[in-house]
């Protein structure tokens, strides 16, 4: 497994944090429509994080790892559930889902399934996204 990240990984990851930050700030500034937009973006990203593992499971030689297939689907289901909830608990569930997915990935890194540079970036991005989603949940209440 490669231990380096593509040079675009960090700037594109940072760009992916911008909607979280801008929507949380818009919610803080009194734009109530920013809350559902923040939830929609958070759900999209949580589903994307699961899709990473679905792709890794299918690309690996031999039979697909069932744990990776589960990790590929559960985040999307949590994201969908979060969108069905009222805004405040939905945003909190999205934050928890993003952070929990990173925690599970950390275990995968220790097992040699993910490279350490990916996890450093992943925690940085997940921390930013989780913070903005939790701030949005507090502001939505």
From TrEMBL:
InterPro entries: DUF3429. This is DUF3429 domain-containing protein. The chain crosses the membrane at residues 38-60, 121-140. Keywords: Membrane, Transmembrane, Transmembrane helix. Signal peptide: none annotated. PANTHER family: TRANSMEMBRANE PROTEIN 69. It comes from Falsiroseomonas selenitidurans. Pfam families: DUF3429.
């Amino acid at each position: 497994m490669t231990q380096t990240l593509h040079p675009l990984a960090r700037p594109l990851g940072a760009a992916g944090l911008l909607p979280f930050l801008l929507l949380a700030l818009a919610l803080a500034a009194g734009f109530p429509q920013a809350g559902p937009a923040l939830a929609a973006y958070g759900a999209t990203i949580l589903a994307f994080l699961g899709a990473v593992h679905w792709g890794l499971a299918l690309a690996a030689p031999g039979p697909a790892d069932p744990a990776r297939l589960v990790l590929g689907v559960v985040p999307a289901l949590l994201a969908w559930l979060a969108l069905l909830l009222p805004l405040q608990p939905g945003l909190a569930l999205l934050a928890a889902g993003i952070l929990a997915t990173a925690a599970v990935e950390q275990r995968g890194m220790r097992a040699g399934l993910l490279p350490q540079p990916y996890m450093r970036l992943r925690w940085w991005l997940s921390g930013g996204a989780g913070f903005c989603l939790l701030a949005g949940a507090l502001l939505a209440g």
